[in-house]
Amino acid sequence: MIHIKHVLALVSVVGFASSLGGCAAGSAAPEETLGQSADALSVDICPAGVPVTLAPAADQTLKSTFTGVGVQIYVCNGATWTLLGPQANLFNDEGKLVGTHFVGPTWQSNDGSSVVGAKKAAATVDPSAVPWLRLDAVSHGGDDGHFSDVTSIQRLSTVGGIAPASGCDSAHPGAVAQIPYSAQYVFYRTKAEGNVKQCNGS
With bands split at pLDDT 50, 70 and 90, how would you rate the model's confidence at 6? Predict the structure, then answer.
C-alpha cells in the first residue's frame, strides 16, 4: 500500500500545480466556458430525493453544478481508516475540465478562484457510496472568478468512495487507500431578493 508521506506530498504538489494553472488561465477563461449560466439553470439539474436536511438557507440560489470524478483518500491510523480528503477533477455539463477538488475541502476553478467549505449536514442515500452533504463556504481564495461568491455547496448523487472494509490494522499504520468516486457538486450564491432555485427536497 501507499504510505501517507507519499500521498501528502502528492496532494501538496497537485494543489500547488492547480494554483499555478488557475493563475495562468486568469481571465482568459470566460465564465461561460464553465457551463450553463446561473440564470439558465433550473431545478431540473437536481436529482430526485434530495433530503430536506441538505437544503441550503432560504436566501441561497443555484449558481452552477459540476461533476467531480476522482478518489477519496483514506489513511490507516493503526485501527481504522480515516478520511484525509478528496482528489478529483471537476467537469461541466459539456464534459470539459473546469477545475479541481482537493483537501480542505477546496474547490478550485481554472480561472484561479477557489472556495473552502465546512460540512453542516450529511445524509446516507446509498449505503455503497459516500454520503450526500451540505457545506457552507468558510473562505475564498485566488483570483476573482467563478467560485468567489459561492456561499454554500451540496454534494449529491454520489457513487463509490467509501472506506475499505479491511486492510487497516496495527501492522499497517500510515497505509493509504485511494477509492474511486464521483459526485454532483451544486454551488449556491446569496440572492438578496426575488425567487430562488434550490435542490431542497421539495
Answer: very low
